[in-house]
Amino acid sequence: xxxxxxxxxxxxxxxxxxxxxxxxxxxxxxxxxxxxxxxxxxxxxxxxxxxxxxxxxxxxxxxxxxxxxxxxxxxxxxxxxxxxxxxxxxxxxxxxxxxxxxxxxxxxxxxxxxxxxxxxxxxxxxxxxxxxxxxxxxxxxxxxxxxxxxxxxxxxxxxxxxxxxxxxxxxxxxxxxxxxxxxxxxxxxxxxxxxxxxxxxxxxxxxxxx
Length: 210
Hints:
Blueprint: H1 4-27, H2 34-48, E1 80-85, E2 106-111, E3 117-120, H3 135-146, H4 155-168, H5 193-196
Helix pairs in contact: 1-2, 3-4
């Protein structure tokens, strides 16, 4: 930050330049045009004002994105909103200075309760693009989620549950989900009506009693 003495010297230099420009226009009787007079003074001022520094590159020292549910360092509230700030854009709590901000591209977080703000690093997607889950994939995931329980989930039961769920819900893979194999990264579209029909057992009144 400039020293006070430096700021004072710049102010004196700017004042002298503006006075010189003003006297020059008065001596030549060109002050009848107020707009032109102001423009001349402004042009003189701009030649002496310091050039705004270029925006700093993205700061790798920013803390990583902490997610939607994060603890505020001031009031301990556990939810914060997110704003994207481009390079050179001033943040919510930045001082109102002339020119662009020195900060690079970042995510600005703000506490829902106390409005405390802080910056975090960008969090671009790292996995495959979200895509729909098929019946077969959801059945496999259900079977895997059931491992370790006393009774294993049969493939038939898992498929029935998958069909029932997808009939009522739209299920998609998250971009940060990394399957153990490459099968889930290539979603397949099934157009076989017979394969898409639910697998149901016969009604109780049609069963043969032994």
